[in-house]
Amino acid sequence: MSKRQYMLQSCGRTAKRRPPKPRQHLYLVVDDWERGYSVRKIDVDSDADTIELDEDAEPLPEPPVIRFRAPHCLLWYFGGHGTNILAMPVSSEADNAFPVLDTKTLGLTVCAHPGGQKVYPKPVFASVAGKLYMMVAFSVCVLGAPPPCNEDTQTQWSWTILSASAPVKSSCIISYAVHPDGRTLFVSESELKSTFSLDTENLSWRCQGNWVMPFKGQAYFDEELDAWVGLCRHKGGIGYVCSCDVATAAECGSMPAWKLGKDQLFSADDERHLGATLLYMGNSTYCLIESLIHNYNQPFKCCRDLRRSRVLYVTKFCLKYDKNGELRTRRLSARSYEMVEGHELNEPCSTPVAFWM
Question: 3-state secondary structure string, 32-72?
Fold first, then answer.
């Protein structure tokens, strides 16, 4: 019997293939250079054995993507937006501007400081609706898209400072998250123990009530879980992730229901622990970066006149609810990297500065 070959006939239209989504990477900003900071690029999707011991930690990838010459102890002035890393500590009194690295093109752009003046209070960065919002003290500064390249004009990338002051001081913000409507930013603060929201379309603030989101730092909307997800800030929950129902953009009044994860990701009681940062990679997948003093750096207490050795544990995991409704994690990969601080000062920003872009 002869074999027949069948072919699917075209229906007259050729389906257009979607261009592949640019591959993203983890970028770490570290103070491992005696003259400033290095940006290190890490591929968290590569196959890696689970590493549990400090002695097995590998060096950070060489060479660095870039180095920024700047004073130390200013890590919290680095911000991220889209594919850009804002190096705000790198500036001079003369130009009142700082460089911005585009991790996609590796090009450098100069951006002016808000109002032409350096930022001194601790800022809080949040990307909303394609713009970067930076809260500094009671001011809100907005950075849009960079100006187009034009040989005839020398327009500098600059900020817009909102006329209305924020109802909360940036140094008091303990957690923040972007609403899934894509336009509303929620922030919780410690002084009044309240939560406020900023509608970035009409630039109006609203008090959501005398309640505080259960997160420490930034939380992310997880579409599959239909909830905000972040690191828990409550005593007994530090070292765990938690999820929280999304508050309504209109006045919420009371705190939404939230749930603590079942699996501990790190121990804040470890005397070597310095801080941890959680990044969202999409599709309920997350990356946790924990910074610890290397175990051969004894005593572990911070001290001067000593360049500390640190270990950075990078863990990729996914989140889901089990059949009992418990929030569970499943580790996908784990690696550790060692570094030596490029200075002998106590860095006030102990939380790793990292970006997924």
Answer: EECCEEEEEEECCCCCCCCCCCHHHCEECCCCCCEEEECCC
Closest CA to 123 of 160, 172, 177: 172
User: What integer pLDDT is reported at residue 116 of this predicted model?
Assistant: 87
Whether the Cβ atoms of residue 123 and residue 169 lie closer than 8 Å to each other: no
Residue 157 DSSP one-character state: B
Strands (E), 48-138: 58-59, 66-69, 78-81, 84-87, 97-102, 107-112, 123-128, 131-136
In angstroms, rounded to a whole number, what is the distance separating the alpha carbons of residues 124 and 133?
A: 8
pLDDT at 185: 98
Q: What is the pLDDT of residue 254?
A: 86
Amino acid at 244: C
The owner of tokens 């196959």 is: 47
Asked if 353 and 77 touch (Cβ cutoff 8 Å), the reply is: no
142: its two tokens: 């907005």
pLDDT at res. 350: 82
Question: Residue 76 gets which letter from DSSP?
Answer: G
131 CB-near residues (< 8 Å, 6+ apart): 142, 143, 144, 200
Q: Which amino acid is at 242?
A: C
> Could you report the per-residue pLDDT of 151-164, keeping only the tens digit for each?
556 677 999 999 98
φ, ψ dihedrals at 172, nearest 5°: -100, -5
Report the predicted TM-score, pTM, of the whole model to 2 decimal places: 0.90
Torsion of CA 219, 321, 292, 336, to 10 degrees: -110
Question: What six digits make up the tokens of 8?
Answer: 């699917």
d(CA 141, CA 175): 18
219: left (phi over 0), alpha (psi -120 to 50) or beta: beta
Q: How confident is the model at residue 3 (pLDDT cuts 50, 70, 90)?
A: very low
Residue 54 backbone dihedrals phi, psi, to 5 degrees: -60, -35
The 10s digit of each residue's pLDDT in 306-326 is: 788 999 999 999 999 999 999
User: In Å, how far from its chain's centre is CA 148?
Assistant: 27
DSSP bridge partners of 319: 329
Owner of token pair 């140094």: 171
